[in-house]
Amino acid sequence: MTAILAPFTFGLSFFLLGMYVMRTGFQNLAGKKMADWLGRFTRTPVHSFWVGLLSTMVLQSSSAVTVLTIGLTHAGMISFSQTVGIILGTNVGTTITTELIALRLETFAVPMLLVGVALWLMPRRLTRCIGLVVAGFGLIFLGIDTMQVMAKPLEQSDAFRSLFLESRHSVWIGLITGMVFTALIHSSSATTAITMGLMSHQVLSMETALAIVLGANIGTCFTAIIASIGTNAASRQVAWCHTLFNLVGALAFLPFLSQLAMVSSLLTDSPSMRIAHAQTLFNVVCSLAALPFTRQIAAAVQWLVPDRKRRRW
Question: pLDDT category, 311, cuts 50, 70, 90?
Fold first, then answer.
């Protein structure tokens, strides 16, 4: 148990700290302009989509962009209908992190961390911010490398083997595992990174790994739901739109995991890259399919999560 928990705890801590440090660096570089972008360039669904995608690429967190969107909606700076495109864009933007993780850059973890710290010690603000981004990436890859140590003892664990055998028969277990774990740690990227590590040691089947990733897409919405507590109806609609979209997309793709695995295997031989490409395909297909129907989606969510104050009047 110690051989599993120790590398998992330290690795996950390094990973989440790296995400925070990298996000802090990006926010200092462009965070102040992010709210302006979200407020000014969301007049059409296509513009909203690109704003969501680019914002998520910069902040490296779909949850952070969604929470920011909830805040702007609560403040009345943007309407709920403008946020649907942003939500679709965040789902595509978050795949950039997964693709970077799949590049297997663990050997550069320590050099990147050292370079990042050296840049952070420089006097210029721009250099310090870049240093935070570089150091953050270094911590992320160091965390991934550390978490991979748990793969061998986990593979030999009787409890995990029995769970793995059950998940082979039912992808629902993988879906729920990814959803619950991501909701607890508030990072779908961390869940995907752990899944990639297990896949590289052939501990999981491809279908099970993809089910976990789909579950992580649902679990990441938990942060937005928490952020919407105590806000107005429009803000709650943003949170539930994000949740329902990811839930419906995951359930729609669940019967086709074998086909998704086959398509991703045609693109690369690397198990980690297969997961990254499959997640990218899933998010791109779902977002682009929904983009022409943003008004209908907004109307449906407004019906499901009504504004009670307006109804009284």
Answer: very low
As a whole number of angstroms, the distance between CA 195 and CA 203 comes to 9
Cα 252 to chain center, whole Å?
A: 19
Least confident range from 31-40, 50-59, 91-100, 218-227: namely 31-40
Flag whether pLDDT at 231 surpasses 50: yes
Q: By residue range, what is the domain housing residue 114?
A: 2-312
Lookup: tokens for 248: 């419906």
Over residues 199-225, mean pLDDT: 82
Residue pointed to by tokens 């909606």: 73
Please state, in angstroms and rounded to a whole number, the distance separating the CA atoms of residues 292 and 288.
Answer: 8
How is the chain split among helix, strand and coil, in percent rounded to 5? 85, 0, 15
Q: How far apart are CA 264 and CA 276, in angstroms?
A: 9
Question: What does residue 302 show for φ and ψ, rounded to 5 degrees?
Answer: -65, -30
Cα(307)–Cα(285) distance, rounded to whole angstroms? Answer: 31
Tokens 């599993």 belong to 4
- CA 156, 159, 196, 67: dihedral to nearest 10 degrees? -150
CA angle (97 as vertex; 143, 46 as ends), nearest 5: 160
Query: Which stretches within 148-232 are classed as H helix?
Result: 151-155, 158-169, 171-185, 188-200, 206-219, 221-227
* Coil vs helix vs strand at 186: coil
Mutual angle of helices 2-26 and 188-200, in 10-degree steps: 130
In the chain, the number of structural domains is 1
Q: For the chain, how far is it from start to end, CA to CA, in angstroms? A: 59
What's the pLDDT score for residue 19?
Answer: 67
